[in-house]
Each structure stands twice: as C-alpha cells, then as structure tokens.
Amino acid sequence: MKKIFVLDTNVLIHDPEAFLYFADNEVVLPITVIEELDKLKRGNGEIPFSARQALRLVDHYRETGKLSAGVNLPGEGTLRVEVKENSHLHKSSNDNRIISTAVTIANNGCKGQPVILVSKDTSVRIKADSLGLLTQDYLKDKTTVFQKFGNIRYDESQSDEITSVRYIQSGDKIFRAYGEDKMELIRRQRSIMSIFPKNIEQECAIDALLSTSTNVVALTGRAGTGKTLLAIAAGLHFCTKTSHNDYAKKYEQVMVARPIVPLGNDIGFLPGDLVEKLHPWMQPIYDNLDVIVNTSDEKVDGKDTDYRSSDYLIESDIIHIEPLTYIRGRSLPRRFLIIDEAQNLRPLDVKTIITRCGEGTKVVFTGDLEQIDSPFLDAASNGLAYLINRFIQEENFCYLNMKQSARSALAEQAAALL
C-alpha cells in the first residue's frame, strides 16, 4: 500500500532533495514549509543555501504540472503542496501548523493510506504522536556502520569485511592492512612535533595521519583521546619539515575549521574582526596549538625555534583558521585540512567540504559521535557517521574509534565515574 509522507521544514534543510527519496509514495509539503524556506533563503551559509536549493527543486517540478493536484517524481511517486490546516491544535507556531496539515490530511479522505509526518525535530514527533499521527525521522542517511568498525584488531585470523585502512596488533607488532590482502608493518612509538603516543590507538592514529596514501581520515572518540591534538601536530609536521624526505613540504598549509553550531549562523554579531569573532569558537584549537608549541623542537627555514607563541604559526600562514560558513565555492589544493567537531555537520556539509579539496589535499575529520550539539542530528544521521558509511570500503580512507583517554588520570577517572 502506498503511503502519504508529510515533510517538516528541517528535513529539507537537512537534505534539499529529500522528497525525491520516498519511492512511489505521495509526498506532501505543507504551505508552512514553503513559507519557512522562503524566510530562510536569504543570506550566506549552509542553511540559506539548502533553503534556496530546496525551493528551486520544488519549482522545477512545479513546471511539470500543478502542485495543488500533485506532480510526478522520478521514483513514480508524487509531490504536492497542501494549504489546509484544520485541527484542534493551537496554531501559534509553525510546527503546530505543519502538524495541523498532517492531521487534516489524515482525517479528510486519504483512502485508507497511512499518513506519516517526517521530522527531524523530536518535539514535533512527540506532539504529532500524541494526536494519533504516525511519525518518523528522515531515514535515508541514517547509518550504524561506525559502531561495527574503527577498532584495532587483535585476532589475525578474523576475516576482513572492509577494504579501507585498518590496524592489527600481533604481539609487539602493529600492521596496517588495506585492500583485500595488503599489509605493512608500521613503525612503533613514532613522535610528531615532539608529541609521543600514549597508547596503541594513538600510534595507529599517527600512522594514518602521516600515511601519504591515506587521503581521508576519520578519528572519533570522547574528549581527551588526542584526536585533534594529533591531527594538528601531523599537519604542522608536514608543513614545517625542511629535511629532504618523503614528507618535506608535501602540504602548503594546515587549515583548521570547526562548525559554529548551528552551522550557517552569521558570526557578525560578535565584536571585532574575523579572527576576534572566531576566537571563542576556536579556543580548543588554540589550546592544542599551545600544547604543541611548548613541546616542539623542530626547525623552520633551517632556524631553531620553539614556537614560543602559536601566533607565529598563524601570522606566518603555516596554519590557518577558517570558518566552515565560508568554505563553499573555494578550491583547496595541497592543504592538510582538519575538520574538528565533525559530528555537528550534516551529510550535505561533509559532501561540500570534500568536494572543495583540490589536488594533493588530505582531509581529517575528528569528532565525538556521542556528543552532538545540533538539535536535528543524532549519532546515526550526522555527517561524520555518513562519511564513515560511504568511505568504509575505500583504500585511501581510515576510520579509527579512539577509546583510551590520554588527557590526564583525573579526566579519565571523571569520565568513568560521572
């Protein structure tokens, strides 16, 4: 039996093409959704971009028929816009108006077809369910692949299900495996920028970050596991090396970005220039830089330096802090690109970032899949989980889930007890 899916605005902001993925069913957009998209379309950033893209796509199908009666979609389904909002629910909010539209459709002759309200907002789903409506989250990009992989293997006889980079410990040796049957012994206790690994997970992470054949790395784990610190140290290692080896000046710049949640918000309300506006959001990056510069004994341009201030790295353009809001439209060749807090990205954002990477760029995503700040994302539907799901069979990709805290004994104790 065909179903009727009523979409909330946040579904189209999450994925502007969402209404194309409901097979041969009927998709309904309440008029309130069109009005909300119209208000959100102005400005820069990912949210206005998604609103504009969704409206353009709806308009494209409008030209093929009448939206009031329903237009045909590629998957043999239909799309229509509904303007009626008759129900006993108080309509002071747009959420309530959207729910009212779904209730109206369910009560007014849908020929026995199930009516399902699709929303990424938990409160909308709860309210709709209390009125007897069927509800669900947007399911297209949900995945649990990250729960199955990312761990160091200790059993050599265990069969591989993936072909991306994974690590195997055998006695006191660690091997990097990739493809169907390729395996290489890695160097133990390798340091970067005078940062020494504190556990096996960090040893494997360092190898993945320094591997010239691994173009995309995803590091997940709770705070204190060293994800961001190691990623920044690896980038600086590449960009400040002056010796004649495989690593020398492979990348022109370390570029670090993290989402300002919610992604796409303008940061113009903060005082000062761009650097000053970004500082509160980027403070964790500066904290990691301070750790690195206080331990480094590398040379730059043949001269000894201990990087007494992280300002030197920024002022000399060795490392660049970039807001994700402005990354669209750029081309980024020969960069060591680090995306921190990537669990707060949508799948669309991750696609935007990777498609900006030019020739010779390496991209590292770090994040904690258990600590998501965006109200419309969860562990199974965020951009970092989506990336892992789509790249898990690629030989130039490595996913590591880091579980061992390296911050301090007190931090580890607090994580376990609190």
What overall form do the CA principal axes indicate?
A: elongated
The figure for the number of domains is 2
- Give the overall pLDDT as a whole number: 87
CATH topology label of the largest domain: Rossmann fold
β-strand number: 17
Order of helices and strands: EHEHHEEHEHEHEEEHEHEHEEHEEHEHEH
N-to-C CA distance = 49 Å
| CA-based gyration radius | 24 Å
* CATH architecture title of the largest domain: 3-Layer(aba) Sandwich
Descriptive keywords:
418 residues, Rossmann fold, 6-stranded mixed β-sheet, 6-stranded parallel β-sheet, 13 helices, 17 strands, elongated
Structure report:
The chain is α/β, with parallel strands linked by helices. It has 2 domains: 4-136, Rossmann fold (3-Layer(aba) Sandwich); 145-417, 3-Layer(aba) Sandwich (Rossmann fold), CATH 3.40.50. It contains 13 helices and 17 strands. Helix 2 (31-40) packs across helix 3 (46-62), helix 8 crosses helix 9 and helix 11 (347-354) crosses helix 12. Mean pLDDT is 87; it is low at 262-267.
